[in-house]
Please model this.
Amino acid sequence: MNDVSPQRTVDPRFAQGAAYSQGRFVPMAEATISVLDFGFTRADSCYDVVHVKDGAFFRLPDHLARFAASMQKRRLAPPEDLAGMEAILHRVTWLTGLSDVYVAMVAIRGRPKPGLPRLIANCDNHFVAYALPWIDVLSPEIQARGGHLWIASIPRIPDASLDPTAKNYNWMDLNRGLMEAQDAGFDTTVLCDAEGLVTEGPGFNVFVVKGSTVSTSGHGVLQGITRKTVLELAPELGLTPRVGDITRAELEDADEVFLATTAGGVMPISRINTRITNNDSPGPISRRMKELYWAAHTRIQWRTPVRGDSIQE
Ligand SMILES: Cc1ncc(COP(=O)(O)O)c(C=O)c1O
Model:
């Protein structure tokens, strides 16, 4: 077993990212899908993102299990099995030579085989994976001052229409929220459902701190692996984790708010619409949770070192 090591010679073509596409390992810029693919024309796909920190995947089995569930919910079945997909994730990551990496896996509908009716059942599903240099949803500078969170005016697509637990690219409601946030001079956005209950934002779950309770929404959201980690770590900080409804008023009245995502970890918020919290800076509980989250990356049960020998080419 080989750990990712800076000493090894890395093919420079992979330094900006490596991908697995159409059965081949290629530099990121060479990974393509057809413009006729239903993944493109209908957002008919599902995906997952896991990060690699200091040469090890964080909670890889959890991400793979969620990806398998997403594929099943969306009736996507690429030819690779889960073990094969895992080997591919190791390989694309290894090829970059990086030790802090954003690693994506995507199952895509494909397009109907020639001569057959345009039915999803007649499509050749396929699997794509790629590894990119580290990505943060909010930049480290914004995380340090606390993000400015805009509560979007438009509701999140209802769960009954689109199951948010199958991680997907149907982002137009989230994108509209982002456009509002951008117009109002905010960093990012959170959407409420039609009843005014808090859901999630573009690429993250939302946590509200009130007293010693940290709450996150139980419906209308992806069951984030970072969210799960925060809920598991909360008792170590003397906090009570809670999964349940959060009203918009509770969000606006929170002691602290933080966001949770693989692409950035625990990200403190310092402004919620016009309200400024904690002297316009990250609150103490958010800071401690952020520290604990990153410290927990050394826990052996959550680390899977990147292997260079997962696939022989
Ligand atoms: C809509 C949405 N919610 C929540 C999350 C956070 O999930 P995780 O912590 O597993 O990255 C993501 C991650 O990309 C997301 O896209």
The first strand starts at residue 18 and ends at 21.
